[in-house]
Design brief:
287 residues, Arc Repressor Mutant, subunit A, Tetracycline Repressor, domain 2, mainly alpha, elongated
């Protein structure tokens, strides 16, 4: 056993005797109020790091050593000296709470679908310029660097947003009996999606959609063209032209300052304008 393992307990007991049981020691005269219980707690607690270093005592938190000493009712002790008021330390439950802290939970698991959905929500709420990888990570509750395991960069997120929004517009297309009705339904559904995401309209106007990704969703519309004897190439030109017209019209409608109040009369005017232009375009593609 190292010498310190013998010396430390002896010094500890000597300090305890001097501060607690020797009434003539000057420290007792300098201890007003409840300072003596504090000295007792300090005398019990402070040597333990040394004992730990010497390998004598296992590590124990201070609340399991000093707090019980402060909370024990002192019975059978000598009366206090005249003019000296003894204060027994109160037992504070919060000091004796040794419940270990919970480890933080695992970070949320995110994938490409969650990233795209969060990006759309961020654009809708704060605008296109607010979409950064850091803001996106904050919205998802993860570090920005963790997003790069799913998307290589911000432009990839923007491209995925474009494809997701267009796919959303085409997902609920109802079957129509003729190609003019199918083309009209496509343009109306596309416009409804654009007006429901006004902050994303400039994005769709400047980022082309992945035709191969959305082509299966256009199969019903293109089939109506084919049923009426219109070649697939001509059908694609008609659908793309209607898409560009719809996008440009929506861009003109949502181009007002964001703080400007919505004008119902203006919205009605844009509706009539769009419907008239759409009828003219569809009629122009008829053979």
């Amino acid at each position: 056993m190292p010498p310190i393992a013998v010396a430390v307990p002896i010094l500890w007991l000597a300090w305890l005797v001097l501060t607690e049981w020797v009434p003539t020691h000057p420290l007792n005269d300098l201890a007003p109020g409840n300072l003596r219980p504090r000295l007792l707690a300090a005398a019990i607690n402070y040597p333990f790091p040394l004992l730990i270093a010497a390998g004598v005592a296992p590590h124990r938190p201070w609340s399991s050593i000093a707090a019980p000493a402060l909370c024990v009712q002192r019975l059978g002790r000598r009366p206090a000296r005249p003019g000296h008021v003894r204060h027994d330390a109160g037992c504070h439950a919060e000091r004796m709470n040794d419940t270990p802290r919970r480890r933080p939970g695992r970070p949320p698991q995110v994938g490409a679908d969650q990233i795209v959905a969060a990006a759309i929500g961020l654009i809708d709420d704060d605008g296109l310029d607010a979409l950064t990888m850091r803001a996106l990570g904050s919205r998802l509750g993860v570090a920005a660097m963790s997003l790069y395991r799913h998307v290589p960069h911000r432009d990839a997120v923007l491209a995925a947003v474009v494809n997701r929004l267009v796919a959303t517009a085409l997902a609920d297309l109802e079957p129509r009996e003729s190609w003019p009705e199918a083309a009209t339904g496509f343009a109306e559904a596309y416009r409804a999606m654009l007006l429901s995401h006004p902050n994303a309209v400039p994005l769709l106007a400047t980022h082309p959609v992945d035709v191969e990704a959305v082509a299966p969703l256009l199969a019903g519309v293109l089939d109506r063209f084919a049923a009426d004897g219109i070649a697939r190439e001509d059908a694609l030109i008609a659908v793309q032209s209607l898409g560009v017209y719809t996008l440009g019209h929506a861009l003109a409608q949502v181009g007002s300052p964001p703080e400007a109040p919505a004008d119902p009369a203006a919205a009605e005017y844009y509706d009539r304008w769009f419907a008239a232009g759409l009828r003219a375009m569809v009629k122009g593609f008829q053979p």
